[in-house]
Amino acid sequence: MIAEEVTAQSAERMAALHAKCFDQPWPASEFASLLSMPSTLAFAIQQDARHLALVLVRIAADEAEILTIGVDPDFRGKRLGLAVLDRAERAVSESGAISMFLEVNQHNDPARALYTRAGYSEIGRRPRYYRGRDDALIFRKTLLERGQTGA
């Protein structure tokens, strides 16, 4: 399956998938608002008019941040997370970003494994970032030459 760029017109589908993936999902209006900004990109793997995996990234100067990434629980373990992540890395690299970073809950072992598999390294920690309890781990990946990720 191929990850394709999606726009604010997919906000409802993005929100529906986000609700399947997270305890505190974002509403469609949040996706639409973020995607109205020229610095924000989204990629999704779609099947039968629904999203199976998505990633939303924001580019600032030569750095990109993963705002959210999710894979439908019924489709996990099929490398869809790696596919959308790779597509986002290529797009931000082509836009001039030389690194990408994200924050992940310290207890989210599947996500941490995905990022490690994709070449990200833990570079920091934000204590009690999530709901005043769980730490956020900061991961970063240096992207290679413009348009290349090495993934």
- Secondary-structure element sequence? EHHEEEHEHEE
Largest sheet: 7 strands, mixed
Beginning-to-end CA distance, first to last residue? 17 Å
- Any idea what the radius of gyration is? 14 Å
Secondary structure: helix percent = 25-40%
Helical/strand content category: alpha+beta
> How would the global form be characterised?
globular
Q: Count the E strands.
A: 7
Strand order of the largest sheet: 1-2-3-4-5-7-6
Task: Tell me the strand percentage band.
Answer: 35-45%
* Total helical elements: 4
User: Which residue ranges are poorly predicted, with pLDDT under 50 across at least 5 consecutive positions?
Assistant: none
Mean pLDDT across every amino acid position: 93
Give a summary of the structure in a few sentences.
With 151 residues, the chain is of the alpha+beta class.
If you had to describe this structure to a student in words, what would you say it looks like?
With 151 residues, the chain is of the alpha+beta class. It has 4 helices and 7 strands; from the N terminus they run E-H-H-E-E-E-H-E-H-E-E. The protein has helices at residues 11-21, 28-35, 80-94, 109-117, and strands spanning 4-6, 40-47, 50-60, 63-71, 99-105, 121-130, 134-142. Strand 3 (50-60) and strand 4 form a beta hairpin. The longest helix is centred in the middle third of the chain and has 15 residues, at 80-94.
